[in-house]
Amino acid sequence: CNGACPDEAQIREIAGWVRKKGTEPFHTDSLSSEFPAAAAYRDHGSGVLAITLSFQTPTMLLWFRAEEKQVVEWAGNPHKAVNLQPGEKLTPRASFEAWTQVVHGKARRWSQPEVEAARRLTVRLYDARQNRRIRDLADSLSVAVADKDRLIAQQETLLKEVNHRVQNSLQLVMAFLALQGRASDDPALTGHLTEAQRRLSAVALVHRRLYTDDNVQSIDLSRYLTDLIVDLKGSMGDEWANQFALDLAPITIAADDAVQVGLVLVELVINAQKYAYGGAPGPIFVNLEQHRARFRMIVADAGRGKTGTRKGFGTRMLDSMVRRLNGTLEVSDNMPGVRTVLTAPITQPRAPADAIVEDAFQ
Questions:
Q1: How far separated are the first and last CA of the chain, in Å rounded?
Q2: Is the whole-model pTM more than 0.70?
Q3: Residue 46 has pLDDT above 60, yes or no
Q4: Scanning 96, 136, 281, 303, which has the fewest C-beta atoms within 10 Å of its C-beta?
């Protein structure tokens, strides 16, 4: 409080009463006539002008005006009767004898410009408070975004490190399988170990790409399949080097799904190598197409066609991979040879920031 005004308890009492008046500025030059409790401090609080800035966190500004005693002169005391003697007549000099009255509890009136100034001040202060809230929210958001970016960077670094370690581990396992295959005198066992190496190569290639690329969540399927076929040709022998024909459209999918697609391709290539041409080299065609929200991978050969219906390990693994992709696998006659079509939805990885942002704003 600046200047002469009621004490703190009295001001709180007035504020509680004024707050019930609404949002418009309240003013009076006779507070005690509307709020009787104000009669106790009318000498320095007979007039009040108040504005409410907030109802949630009660905030008000109040201006007080001291009492200005008013002297009123009456032509006669209105509370005193005139007593006439018998036969006496009422005369102006007797009935209008001057009488003076002192009026208490009144302050100087609040002018219209003063009330309007209080209204404009309310708007200005409200705008200033809103602007400060917006700045505070913007600062909080900036901090949250900076924390989110830092956590994302840490997460991506950790994921790259994990992919690098997984890749090294898979390379080590593949090396052990190669050593075991070369040490075995059983051709069947050597063949099984070679197939296992190819399957592991499909998984290791994904982790190698994720470690070297900036994006650790998704992968370009066409580039991945191209590199995978290069690895497959290296393990199949020089005679297969020029037997592959590729037509791959650029499609980005989640890394986890790319592993499943790679394993499907490896199995189909292994089947073509083993059965299409009786073990001899022959052309293999690999196409990748996009149809709206789905992709199709087509693997075809020009060999002897489908022989037998027995389901071995490779076929069971194919079925498992296709189910994980929520896709379908169609096998048809390529005339000559076999044409296999894998169709599945194109999935995008969940953005790494999603969970972090949710936590930051809870």
A1: 40
A2: no
A3: yes
A4: 136
